[in-house]
C-alpha cells in the first residue's frame, strides 16, 4: 500500500514564508504560540478535538524558511494570513479543498506576484519567475501537487516530505479564527490574464520528491 502524501490528500493548505520563525507564522495565523507543543502528526490528532470552526496548525522550519500545514477548516489561504506571511518577505501558498484543483500563490510583501492551478494549465497571474510553466513541464511525468513540491524544493533548497509532516512539529489549535477579518484584509492581486496568451518556454526534467 502506498504511504500517505499531499498529492493524495483531498484537503490541505501548505504555506512557506522566508525569514520568519515558527512563532512568527503562528502569530500570522492568529494562534497563541505559548499553547503550541512539539507533537507528531499521530500525537496531535489523537489529542485534537475538531469543531466546526477550529483550525489545527502544524508549523516547522528548514533553513531560512518556515512552513505551516493544515488539513481541515483551513485558514492559511485567506488574504489576511497571506499578507502577514509575506510582509517584508516572500511566501508561497499551496492549497486544495474537496479534492478540487489545487491553487498556488506566490506573494511578495503583500502582493500576489504569481497565481496558478498546478496540473490544470490555468494561470491566474503570470510572472517572470514562471513557476507555473516550470510546474507544468514536470506534470508530464508527475501530478500537479508533486510537481509543485519539487519546484518549491528547488527554490527554497528544502523538500516538504511526508516524513517531515508526520514528524514532530509545533502544533496548536485556533478555536475560533476571525475568518471574516482574515478574508477582508486583502492582499494585492493583479488583474487575471488569458492563460493562452502567457508565453511558455522549454525546461529541463527534474527529479522526484523523496
Could you characterize what this model shows?
There is one protein chain. The chain is α+β, with helices and mostly antiparallel strands and 210 residues long. Helix content is 25%, strand content 26%. It has 7 helices and 9 strands, in the order E-H-E-H-E-E-H-E-E-E-E-H-H-H-E-H. The protein has helices at 22-28, 41-47, 79-85, 131-138, 144-156, 162-166, 179-184, and strands spanning 12-18, 37-39, 55-62, 65-70, 90-96, 103-108, 111-117, 122-125, 169-174. It has a 9-stranded antiparallel beta sheet, sandwiched between helices. Strand 5 and strand 6 (103-108) form a beta hairpin. Helix 4 packs across helix 5 (144-156). It is globular, with a radius of gyration of 16 Å. The two termini are 17 Å apart. Residues 192-210 have low confidence and may be disordered.
Task: Give me some keywords for this one.
single chain; 210 residues; alpha+beta; nine-stranded antiparallel beta sheet; 9 strands; disordered C terminus
Amino acid at each position: 500500500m502506498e504511504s500517505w502524501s499531499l498529492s493524495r490528500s483531498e484537503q490541505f493548505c501548505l504555506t512557506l514564508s522566508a525569514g520568519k520563525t515558527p512563532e512568527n507564522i503562528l502569530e500570522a495565523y492568529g494562534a497563541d504560540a505559548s499553547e503550541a507543543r512539539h507533537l507528531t502528526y499521530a500525537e496531535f490528532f489523537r489529542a485534537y478535538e475538531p469543531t466546526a470552526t477550529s483550525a489545527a496548525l502544524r508549523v516547522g522550519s528548514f533553513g531560512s524558511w518556515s512552513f505551516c500545514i493544515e488539513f481541515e477548516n483551513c485558514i492559511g489561504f485567506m488574504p489576511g494570513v497571506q499578507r502577514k506571511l509575506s510582509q517584508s518577505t516572500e511566501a508561497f501558498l499551496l492549497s486544495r479543498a474537496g479534492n478540487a484543483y489545487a491553487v498556488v500563490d506566490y506573494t511578495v510583501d503583500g502582493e500576489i506576484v504569481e497565481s496558478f492551478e498546478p496540473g490544470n494549465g490555468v494561470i491566474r497571474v503570470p510572472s517572470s519567475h514562471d513557476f507555473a510553466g516550470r510546474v507544468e513541464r514536470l506534470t508530464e511525468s508527475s501530478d500537479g501537487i508533486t510537481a509543485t513540491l519539487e519546484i518549491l524544493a528547488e527554490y527554497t533548497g528544502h523538500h516538504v516530505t511526508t516524513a517531515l509532516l508526520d514528524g514532530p512539529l509545533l502544533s496548536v489549535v485556533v478555536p475560533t479564527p476571525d475568518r471574516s477579518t482574515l478574508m477582508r484584509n486583502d492582499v494585492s492581486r493583479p488583474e487575471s490574464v488569458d492563460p493562452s496568451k502567457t508565453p511558455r518556454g522549454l525546461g529541463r526534467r527534474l527529479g522526484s520528491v523523496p
